[in-house]
Amino acid sequence: MRPRTVAWQVIAALVAGLMTISLTACSDDDGAGADGFAVGLLLPSRAVPRWEHSDKPLIEKRLRQLCPGCTMEYANAENDVSRQREQMTSMITQGVRVLILDAVDNKALRSSVQEARRAGVPVVAYDRLAQGPISGYVSFDGAQVGRLQGEALLKVMGEKATGKTVVMVNGDPSSPNAAWYRRGALSVIEGKVKIGRSYDTRGWSTDNAHANMSAAIAALGPDRIGGVLAANDAIAAGVISALKNAGVRKLPPITGQDADLEAVRRIIEGEQYMTVYKPFRTQAAAAAAMAVALGRGEDVREVATTTIDSPTTQDIPSVLLAPSTVTVGNIKQTLVKDGVYTIKQICSQKLRPACSQAGLSP
User: Fold this and answer.
1) What distance in Å separates the CA atoms of residue 118 and residue 336, rounded to the nearest whole number?
2) DSSP code per residue over 76-102
3) CA distance 47 to 34
4) Structural domain spans, the chain
5) Percentage of the chain with pLDDT > 90?
6) How confident is the model at residue 5 (pLDDT cuts 50, 70, 90)?
7) Nearest to 355 by CA among 326, 329, 325
8) How is domain 142-272 classified at the CATH fold level?
9) Which of 127, 201, 235, 283 is the 20 to 30 A CA-CA neighbour of 173?
10) How many other CB atoms are found less than 10 A from the CB of residue 208?
11) Is the domain defined by 8-140+280-321 classed in CATH 3.40.50.2300?
């Protein structure tokens, strides 16, 4: 993939436009719903909480705002490629005009994307860049996600980082994003720490991450692990449980991604050092805007801010957004400020003393 660099001011302008666009722009003089159509949303799993809790409702809400007459058909593949393939075929048969696809496996879904193209149904790749004739792509800069994780890990390890052993518990090898994150992280930490073990985590599963980390502990010994670069928060949860089960009382610094609520609570408790926050509302808004434009036969490049090349398709109109680091010191300035969570949601009765210390008093 080779993104063409654009000024972040352009992305800021896009965000402002997406969030303030007139709600009546997609209805004609006959009233709301006159130009409505169905949009299919296909998400990959429930293993990562954000898909069901954030992305789905945000995309559906923005679609209704941009096109009151539009409807959304939804399916979750439960991390099953065959199921997602069947779901795509079903939606195409039912007559959806556009598909928003977060592929379980970007290569395995290529034939389904081609099927959609033959049926005249454009596909917007969401979060993960599927192969095949994709019409648009919305995600975050995956290399920057990995760099933020690597930089945070080195920062918290401080002078002790040099020569220390780090375990990498990466994402699902079938996801192009997993390799993207890993490359970004390695660009920061390689040569500065010793990578004791590196594992891929099938399905981004907490249980599989637990097994991977247990293997690392058995091979290296718990006292030799200076930090863990966990690809996302579900994986971080498995890493932490494995360390606790091994009797580790003082946990090494552990990274994450997705700003899951439980991960934010672990950060406050001191069990997880950081997570990477990706503003889902902006991502969902961009995907909805692309879907509505494509459904009306408009030029999706009016929504895009750059282009991306996949192994199968060049110059895909794309929106790549900037992620940010969240640690205990800036939860209020990031997640609370953006309305992802309220302090009340984050700070359970058990966490109130730690929340108070972190400046998160209700």
Assistant:
1) 44
2) E-TT-HHHHHHHHHHHHHHT-SEEEE-
3) 38
4) 8-140+280-321, 142-272
5) 79
6) very low
7) 329
8) Rossmann fold (3.40.50)
9) 283
10) 20
11) yes
